Amino acid sequence: MSPNTDKLSIDKEISWLSFNERVLQEACDPNVPIVERVRFLGIFSNNMDEFFRVRVAAVRRSILLSALQEGRSNSRHLMAKIQTKVMALQERFDSIYVELMRELVRRNILLINEKQLSEFHSNWLKKHFRDHFKRHIAPLIVNNNRDLVKHINDDATYLCVCLFTKSRRQYALVEVPTKNVPRFIELPAEKSKAKKYLILLDNIIRHCVDDLFGPFFEYDAIEVYSMKLTRDAEFDITDELEQTQLEKMTKGLKKRLTAEPVRLVYDKEMPEHMLEMLKENLNISSTECLIPGGRYHSFKDFIGFPNPSRDYLENEKLPALNSSGFGRSANSFDAIKMGDIMVNYPYHKFSHFTEMVRQAAYDPAVRFIRINLYRVAKKSHVMQSLIDAVKNGKQVTAVIELRARFDEQSNIEWTRVLAEAGVKVHHGITSLKVHSKLCLIGREEQGEMKLYCHVGSGNFNEGTARVYTDLSLFTANQEIAREVEQVFDLIEHPYRRDNFQHLIVSPYDARQKLTHLIDNEIVNAQSHIKAAITLKLNNLLDESLVQKLYEASAAGVKIKLLIRGMCSLIPQIPGISDNIEIYSIVDRFLEHSRVMLFHAGGENKLFISSADWMSRNIDNRVEVSVPIYDPRLKQMVMDILSLQFNDNTKARIINKEQSNPYRNRGNKRKVRSQIAIYQYLINYEKRLQQEFSTQREAAKLEAEHAAELAHNLELQAKAS
Fold this sequence. Notes:
Blueprint: H1 12-28, H2 34-69, H3 75-106, E1 109-112, H4 119-133, E2 140-141, H5 148-151, E3 158-164, E4 169-175, E5 184-186, E6 196-200, H6 201-207, H7 209-213, E7 221-231, H8 245-257, E8 261-267, H9 272-281, E9 290-293, H10 324-327, H11 332-337, E10 341-345, H12 351-362, E11 366-373, H13 381-391, E12 395-400, H14 408-421, E13 424-426, E14 433-434, E15 438-445, E16 448-456, E17 468-475, H15 478-492, E18 504-506, H16 510-526, E19 532-537, H17 543-555, E20 558-563, E21 580-585, E22 590-591, E23 594-598, E24 605-609, H18 615-619, E25 621-627, H19 631-645, E26 651-653, H20 673-719
Parallel strand pairs: 1-6, 8-9, 11-12, 12-13, 14-25, 17-22, 19-20, 20-21
Antiparallel strand pairs: 2-4, 3-4, 3-7, 5-6, 7-8, 10-17, 11-15, 15-16, 16-17, 18-25, 19-23, 21-26, 23-24, 24-25
Helix pairs in contact: 1-2, 1-3, 2-3, 12-13, 16-17, 19-20
């Protein structure tokens, strides 16, 4: 093993930007439907917002801390690399945007600005603005007595307005009110119905800006340019003992509103006097924070770009599938009792989970429900079922993670709603985020308590279940279910220590067990026994586990990695990682499931997990990985992994250069794994349905035969 392997890593920030570049590749791909390409620009922009709020903010804090301590730091060098990469991506983004707008015109879809309006559309918009939009707009007037930082929302785009007279300039900020009004407005047909005209809300405000300021200000001219501020998403949580966790989080969210600005994106055409005013009023001194851009910001709203024309301009719909396992019985618990069930979102319906919880809410046999909640939908059927369960006298415990980044406010509100309804709400362990995806239901059956549980990789969220790929195991295996119960007990009583024979649980035993699984493969490789590790993760950053994978590769273990996001490991280094292949898939669904497969001398130990291989997930969160024992389910997951590693359409190769080359298809047939998985699952469910139907028929015939036999015996008894 090379003594320098501890330095063989990619900066996580650079790796993250490489992931977002893969998203931008989708916007650039002519094989992707045009409307979806525009939406990928929105996804890229949304990702970049979070990158600055979290990653760049952390680097800036490191620079400041290093300066205060007069120590050496690589953070300034890293910030320079980030800045260079971000600028390159922004330039590419702008050129792709221009290209896509031209392509939309060729499809008779025109995204126009206020200067391109016909008289008909101009008059229609002014009336529409007065009737529907104006009520949502309250300009923020800039003066020396107002601290702009306290009043700017970093989720929003602002139009910076300058009102000119001969003697002075008056500035104002207008928030584009996308929370109340759609960002895109389709204009009514004027002459030809073939052409579809769209206009951004920003440009409607530009067109009607005199309606806002004319009645109250005198000016000779007016200038309008866009800007957007991004703040540090990390906020201080005080450790005052008298404060509840709920109070701390509420206080922390208020601090986020005035947190340090980390990025000001502005229209590169903005005049110098306006930019200087913004820098002064927003306390921005470093050029690292300034990102010149195009006319529009908050491109994340382009995620919802409408399709006003033909269906083929967006992805073909893939109707979610029914699970044959749940189809075995109208009672979810009877279905699970017949055998483990796995559903694969978004290919399967999320309603299988919501239906189980709905039934639990009024099933007379159910005694309690315990559930982890990290991110839930705004209109959550799961939450309503928990409330209904309390009304029916069930004991309901919900562990709500208040520190789920950017969902804190939503989770605070859900805490209040559930608590008022009588749900026992627990906020987990002060020092650990609870990120596991667990649901445990206890039923009294024939005088005994039987446990049913869900362990998965994704949140109980109806919205994300339509676009995130995740795996969920439903089982009545009492040994696994009792260990899930132990995890809930540990969350409520963290001073306890339990041993887990089946589950891998962070932070209690995950590092030891994962290291042991890798070590076993190393021993097998050294003994010339087949050794292999296959991992599908969102992120791979943990230094210790990366070192273990380098060690395994050097020993001859064949390692295949599918990493959607950040990956610090460098593959294909002679003598160190030449047995490691890394791929990343970016397609219509967000790859979110975590799967671990260890060859284990042919045993094929398979786990699905809520955890990535990052230090925070291994050491600072409650995470759960569950083994898949059912041979059919295990084979299904292994088949899906095989499809993903054979993807030659959407798979990129992860290399040292972070250049994201597509996997070379050569003469092989085209494999687009997400579409292939959907087709695989259609056939899988058909086979299961036929098998279960055959079993039911056999059971029916057996019952009829037994009844006939009993009847004949009864007749014989009477005759004798």
